[in-house]
Amino acid sequence: MICENISFENGLLRFAGRNPLELAAKYGTPLYLYDEDRVRANMRRFRNAVKTHFGEGSEVLYASKAASFKQIYRIAAEEGIWTDVVSSGEIATAQAAGFDLSHSCFHSNNKTPEDISYAMDRGVGYFAVDCPEELYALAAESAARGITQKIILRITPGIDPHTYEAVATGRVDSKFGSAIETGQAENITALALSLGNLKLCGYHCHVGSQLFDSEVQLRTAEIMMNFVADMKDKFGFEAQVLDLGGGFGVRYTEEQPAPDAASVIADVAKLLKSTAAARGVKMPDIFIEPGRAIVADAALMLYTVGSVKRIPGYKQYVSVDGGMTDNPRYALYKSPYTFYDASRPVSEKTERFTVAGRCCESGDLLGENIPLPADICRGDILACCTAGAYQFAMSSGYNRVPRPGLVMLKGGEDYVAVRRQTPEDMAEFDI
Predict the structure, then answer these.
(1) In whole numbers, what is the pLDDT of the chain averaged over residues?
(2) Which of the residues are catalytic?
(3) Which residues are CB-neighbours of 279 under 8 A, at least 6 positions away?
(4) What gap in Å lies between CA 407 and CA 28, rounded to an integer?
(5) What predicted TM-score, i.e. pTM, was given to this entire model?
(6) How far apart are CA 206 and CA 64, in angstroms?
(7) Which residues contact 219 (CB under 8 A, 6 or more apart)?
(8) Which of 131, 170, 209, 294 has CB atoms 3.0–4.6 Å from 159's, for a disulfide?
(9) Measuring CA to CA, which residue among 97, 98, 151, 94 is closest to residue 126?
């Protein structure tokens, strides 16, 4: 199975041991279902691997852009992991959940003056600095407050991870960070060391997403550790922190390999330690930032089928009551998913369908060439697997379609974590 928490009972789908039909009837559709036990297990797996291979000073930071809502920050705090945030909204959500923001790192390539002030007001631990303009702004704001702000510099190692174009972030021409190859990484390091009211703690990088083996991470780690050593040789500065970002692969279809993040972490740790020893630098604390790998396989998305349209000689459509408003990833990236008709036993007798959303938009599709039962019909519950990352986070109010609710499953029980929006909610902020 693509997810450990998906099973079949008499051929019928079960998720986290629960019947999706019962949950759809109780809460309505579309519906995000999150398996809290799986979220916690994923967090523990990463934390244990990091502490085992990198040591106690190293940390897992949940990349909350994958799915940001109050309960996920409460769970992260209880599981002893940190978080990264990319906006004032994510900071506000984490704070509202009672998360200790000193255990957070603020990313993004263009933090506004309002963002910087908001984050400092709330005690964000680290800023991951993208560019010289941000350094000057941070130094000025810190000086005005009479504080010293901890920072790490986002560095571009110049690696093409051969991932989706839209999520490749480690190349020299990326919009993120300062490139080693062009000398800009060295220049921003010198600038950071020259400014007052800032404490440069180390470096950050992130090269892309959906990485299934250790090759890219190993190349990245070697480049970054050599950069740490080069900056020590050049400026006498020895990094205390090296943040290697995330990108750990997640299995969306049977064709994709089963990831082994713990093995990758072990391989990276071995290489980092040997490189540090060879270059005569102290091994820094290592941060990693899994987001997708923590929440993606912990969720299932439920839809109700509205119509089945067959166009002889062309296509067959299954239309559902959700779409790009609750999951824009196929429209944006052609991201693959596995679907099941939860209302019918799994059968080899299938036909191929395009799963279409409800929006007034030709591109509102959730998948194409999807095998589903030939007798799928109106009222069936369609389940989209591995739905925990970037679906809820990227949802929108396009066509003024209300956002779905988000229900957590824990130990056989269920509870609402995010309430379903109503049509009236869509006009809430209009004047």
Answers:
(1) 94
(2) 360
(3) 225, 226, 228, 229
(4) 11
(5) 0.94
(6) 15
(7) 157, 159
(8) 170
(9) 151
